[in-house]
Amino acid sequence: MTLSRFWGLFLLHVALLSSLCFAEDPFVTYDFEVSYITASPLGVPQQIIAVNNKFPGPTINATTNYNIVVNVRNKLDESLLMHWSGIQQRRSSWQDGLLGTNCPIPPKWNWTYQFQVKDQIGSFFYFPSLHFQRAAGGFGSFIINNREIIPIPFDTPVEDITILIGDWYTRNHTVLRKALDAGKDLGMPDGVLINGKGPYRYNDTLVPDGIDYETINVHPGKTYRLRVHNVGISTSLNFRIQSHNLLLAETEGSYTVQQNYTSLDIHVGQSYSFLLTTDQNASSDYYIVASARFVNESQWKRVTGVAILRYSNSKGKAAGPLPDPPQDEYDKTFSMNQARSIRWNVSASGARPNPQGSFRYGSINVTEIYVLRNKPPETIDGKRRATLSGISFANPATPIRLADQFKLMGVYKLDFPNRPLTGPPKIETSVINGTYRGFMEVILQNNDTKMHTYHMSGYAFFVVGMDYGEWSENSRGTYNKWDGIARSTTQVYPGAWTAILISLDNVGVWNIRTENLDSWYLGQETYVRVVNPEATNKTELPMPANALFCGSLSKLQKPQDVTSLATSIRSKLFFSVLMIASRLFLVSR
């Protein structure tokens, strides 16, 4: 063998060996610079968290099974974690971006997330999860498209349009945080933003002049996919478009039975896809409205977001009153019945070729049951706190997953109760002990006076029932055991319960929390720890090489350890080039 041929084979083998570390699925890479900017979405200059100087941040656009690389540069003056809401992080809770799994990214440092969107499709979003930062922005949409070989259950729309709605305060997030620390309520929001912009001036009294508003441009006779996310703090919003129907098609990774709605309540943290057909005469522009729900609507009129839908052949500006919200201010039955009507499309294929309904969740035996009950905030040890089942969660200095990795004792307690505590509430780091491959039933009982939504990381759970009053064993007789929607965030009405079923097949440490940012900040959360007793890389990936250390493990952290995984990605590309060059070299010989 000649020396040149030896080196050609050597380079080829090195490149092939390197490529074994990565799936054949494509990589998409994003650089996120998270910083403060000054903007005036409601006409008042304020400090906002931007991503790459954009508010909202850029959309992450991927396809099922893609590998996502996000290099985050923290240019804030406080620590940061980015959470990928609804992304299941299969086998890798290390990348979830929450304090139970990750040490924070210190100011002026960078850290690279790398994860695969394994077996997922749908509409999601990301946001900063620490220090009440989501109240200042930092959020953006996250789209996972179907692979080409998997058909979608509707004709391909001409365009994807992202709409981020949410309540908004003109006070900085640090001021809001201090108010909560002082035991105060946040009070009524100052407005609702749509894609980071204030309301169109539909009313000269309620909306000041000079507000920048969102305009969505469309063509007549087309069908568009609207991906709508409530990224707000604590307000449920009714979403509607004047004179148009909204055909519901997907929510948080599940295709739904397709139904038309004139409006839909979208609760904090929830995401929906609608098909919008532009079938009106365009005599004028049309209002897009997101208005506050389950409040005194006469007092909350300013808490309304208004954007504009503009046909290319529009004959004039929108004018006149907004389209009416549901006329049920004092009767929440309509909203609950609407929520119950959202069902799983069991015949549609999701991320895989087999129909969604081939997973027959209703025939699986439940192995563990937890009743998680909330109540209005209460004083514990002199501090105003929010609880689940009588426990207000205290985040440990060392993340739970990191403590497990290094076998640290005393970081948390694996003793979260199956039923609410009967004694006085307490502040603890109490975690649910989930059984790998178990099937968990969770009843979310809302004894607070306001609407809550609950989210679980790592999974899509099945929403099988909801009703007013206290849940009891007899409530199971009302469960939907066939086509309950699979999603990651569900609403629980005040004075009511929602039941969910979870197949615990994803190893890791997974957060379950209220999405209401004020109650979450005050401790209304816990984690579900799912461990495979046969520890193997097949069910959980190793700790990432760039893991940050904090708490009891701070001594392991060195400044030079905070390197970007972008280096490894560049190495991958380098070896790919080497592989191609080697093949060309061998062919030329």
From TrEMBL:
Localization, UniProt: Cell membrane
UniProt cross-references to CDD domains, sorted A to Z: CuRO_1_AAO_like_1
GO cellular component, one term: plasma membrane
GO MF term set: copper ion binding; oxidoreductase activity
Signal peptide as annotated in the record: 1-23
Primary location group: membrane
Keywords: Cell membrane, Copper, Glycoprotein, GPI-anchor, Lipoprotein, Membrane, Metal-binding, Signal
SUPFAM superfamilies linked to this entry: Cupredoxins
Membrane topology of the entry: Lipid-anchor; GPI-anchor
Domain annotation Plastocyanin-like: ranges: 34-148, 159-314, 398-534
Cofactor(s) this protein cannot do without: Cu cation
InterPro entries from the UniProt entry: Cu-oxidase-like_N (IPR011707), Cu-oxidase_2nd (IPR001117), Cu-oxidase_C (IPR011706), Cu-oxidase_fam (IPR045087), Cupredoxin (IPR008972), CuRO_1_AAO-like (IPR034273)
Membership in a protein family: Belongs to the multicopper oxidase family.
Record's protein name: Monocopper oxidase-like protein SKS2
Highest classification ranks of the organism: Eukaryota, Viridiplantae, Streptophyta, Embryophyta, Tracheophyta
